[in-house]
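Today's session is about reading a structure prediction critically. Students often jump straight to the picture, but the first step is always the sequence itself: look for stretches that repeat, for charged clusters, for runs of hydrophobic residues. Only then move on to the predicted structure, which in these notes is written as discrete structure tokens rather than atom positions. Here is the chain we will use throughout the hour.
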Amino acid sequence: MPLLFDSLCNLKSICDIILWNMLFGGFGMNRVFFDLGVFLYWSADSMASKSVTSKGSVIVSNKDALKAIMEENAVMDPDILDVLKSLRKEGFSLNICDSFSQAEIWECVEKLGIDKYFDEYVSATTEEAMASAFAEKRGKDDFFLFVGTNEMIIRAATKMQIPSICYGKDWMSVYPMTFSKALYPIEIEDQIRITLLVHSIVKKAILKKSKILGIDGIMYAGKKTLADRITRYMDLIGQENMIVDLEDYHRAVEESYKGEDPVEAYYFNGFNYEKLMEDVLDPYLKEGKLDRTVYCLDSYNDAFVNERYYKISENGIMILLGTMMYREPLLKYFDTTVYLRVDDKEAEHRASLMDVPVYGLASIDDFKKKDIPAEKMYVARHDPFRNRDFVIDNSNYHRPFFID
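Below is the predicted structure for this chain, in token form.
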């Protein structure tokens, strides 16, 4: 079984937090650990937007960072300070872990003038020692996360199934080892929020012993991006998973537009639910596992030639993503449900960025006349906001949040 630790969700009121803990765990802490390199790195964005003296040049290594701090030549990006203030205000426990001694860490932090923001300093010189330190300090209800580029700490965090966000000079070299990256200070906070959101979804899916986790929302709501993040998190904690995309089960164009009203035609006939159920969902639930190849429709030549191979064992969670799914005949298949809300104008904007370069301006007109009205019809008839495990506003994809 994967090692998951309950956390407080990114909810909007104390009552929500209390209710969440009553339902899903104790009063754990959201704990973020930084290495010292985070506080001496100036991103390209910061260098370009601020007047930086020579003291603010990029520090190239932890050793140089320590030397610069001790000699009082270091200048910290003020945006990092804003991130610390914001996270602290939101109730995060902030901590530092590095290979320096605790005394050296404390002296560095004090000289930078940020010591009041941190709860603990963790010192370890090996991967095993750092992993043991994490294990010792992590309560069963805590959410842990590491920010930095120290490869030894990233390996230790990964060993303990703790996600890492790389931020610092060497981010490109360690990024393949991490859960996500931040390229400028405010993005650190964005990625922490997103990681906590993903953690909350995965945790609930596991607690419910889900076989199928649904991610629903209009096109360009961010379903694939969220699904990819969920799979990365599940991979980190050892939870087997597999994605199935409803987009692979479109009907032929003439069926999708059959009838006088193209919106209703798309709403009722746009997807081949029968094939999805017969070839994937029913065999998966009947046998408890799946190992088969399915041939889906290629709309360009109207032939079932698009090959999709699905393999998942009894211990896996299938992630089914698509639009207008939380209705018959699919509703009964979902154990955990996520609905992504996005403003119409934002969805149009994303469609213009992704489709216009490939399909031309007509694609936006089709999206506005077909997809948006069909989604409105779906919301009016089935209200996908109700009885969902999670409803997420993803209009600002940098900072999605749960809706009550």
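Discussion point for the tutorial: The two ends are 30 Å apart (CA to CA).
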